[in-house]
Structures are given as C-alpha cells and as structure tokens.
C-alpha cells in the first residue's frame, strides 16, 4: 500500500506527518472538533483502543536507512571542474522535518549562479522538495536517481516535525547549528500551511 493511500484510508497512527510540539492545539473540545473534521487525531487524554496484533497479521516488513553524519547534515556549495555543486545530504532521521528548509536554502545558493538548467541527485524528500523549489522559480530541473517513489526511503517514512538527534553534540559546528535552526524554522512555517489539508496527509497531534 502506498503511503498516500494509507493516509487517505483514514489511519493516522503511523504514517501521518504531524507537527510535533503543538499538542496543546488539540486539547480544547472546540478545537478537537475542528481537527476531527479533517482527520482521526483524537484529543490528548482520549482512551486508546486496544490493538489486536499478531505475527500472522503482518503483511510486510520494510526498513528505511537514513544517511546520518556525526557532524550533522552537509549543506554547502563547492565547485568540481566547471560544475557548481550544492551538497545537501546526511539529514539522518530529520529529512522530512527539514525538507522545505534545506530545499529553500539550497535553491537560493543555486539561483545565485543564474543557471537555467540544474540536475538534482536523488528523489527522496530532500531531492524532490529542492527540485520543486527550483521549478517554481523558473529553473529547468532534471532529477537523477537510482530509485524513484514509491521505491525510496522517504516514501515509507512515518514522520513527525521533530528536527532533533541530527548530529553528535561534540562534532557539530556553530555554522551547521545555525543552518539547522534556519532550516527548521522555514520548514515549520511551510508545513503549517499544509496542516489538515487532505491533499497532503499532514495532521496535528
């Protein structure tokens, strides 16, 4: 089952991307009523129905390995020969959380060069959001990838907006921390605009 089909099927227990840290938004009865109009997210304190689980009900098992770098994600511009490269990888388990933020930062670096044609390597959440940011600004984008959705790690990610544990504290630089703070703020503001819109599968918890 594809993630979007799963979300539209009404279950938000695992795969719905939520905006963590805003749990207070669903505690008031009036607000809970508004949210339940769009999703099956229950108010905090609601009884949890027992789960009937057994191995014979397992339909498949999937594993998504996230590229983690101890110094934190790499986002910087370099050159290789006559090519201008923007590195944007190593987000660990925070790819969805940071996606729109690092995409906007990366696209900004690329647009500074004024190149009409750009190649994006990878079709996970980082690659796709970066490609979309560039397309929206009029750049011609070609995506090169080994796999495309639904055969990517991002496609099976059950995500929360929760940009933490992205680095080893003793190895991360102040510059990376600054980038992460900016990317998280940008991504959060973008995800808010998608919350509880059934086209996107983004819900509040």
Describe the structure.
With 205 residues, this protein is of the alpha/beta class. The chain has a domain at 74-193. Helix content is 31%, strand content 14%. The protein has helices at residues 3-8, 29-36, 95-111, 125-136, 174-194, and strands spanning 17-18, 74-80, 83-89, 117-121, 140-144, 202-203. The strands form 3 sheets. A two-stranded parallel sheet has the order 1-6. The chain has a two-stranded antiparallel ribbon with strand order 2-3. Helix 3 runs parallel beside helix 4 (125-136) and helix 3 (95-111) packs across helix 5 (174-194). The protein is globular. The protein starts with a helix and ends with a strand. Mean pLDDT is 82; it is low at 10-38.
Kindly list the characteristics that best describe this protein.
205 residues; alpha/beta; two-stranded parallel ribbon; globular
């Amino acid at each position: 089952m594809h993630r979007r089909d799963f979300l539209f099927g009404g279950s938000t227990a695992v795969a719905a991307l939520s905006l963590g840290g805003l749990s207070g938004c669903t505690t008031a009865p009036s607000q809970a009523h508004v949210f339940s109009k769009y999703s099956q997210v229950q108010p905090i304190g609601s009884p949890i129905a027992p789960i009937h689980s057994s191995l014979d009900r397992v339909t498949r098992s999937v594993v998504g390995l996230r590229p983690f770098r101890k110094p934190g994600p790499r986002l910087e511009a370099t050159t290789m020969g006559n090519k201008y490269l923007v590195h944007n990888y190593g987000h660990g388990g925070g790819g969805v959380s940071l996606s729109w933020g690092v995409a906007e930062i990366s696209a900004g670096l690329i647009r500074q060069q004024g190149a009409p044609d750009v190649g994006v390597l990878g079709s996970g959440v980082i690659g796709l959001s970066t490609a979309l940011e560039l397309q929206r600004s009029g750049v011609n984008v070609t995506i090169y990838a080994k796999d495309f959705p639904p055969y990517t790690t991002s496609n099976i990610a059950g995500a929360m907006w929760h940009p933490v544990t992205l680095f080893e504290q003793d190895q991360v630089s102040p510059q990376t921390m600054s980038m992460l703070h900016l990317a998280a703020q940008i991504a959060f503001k973008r995800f808010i605009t998608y919350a509880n819109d059934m086209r996107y599968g983004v819900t509040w918890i």
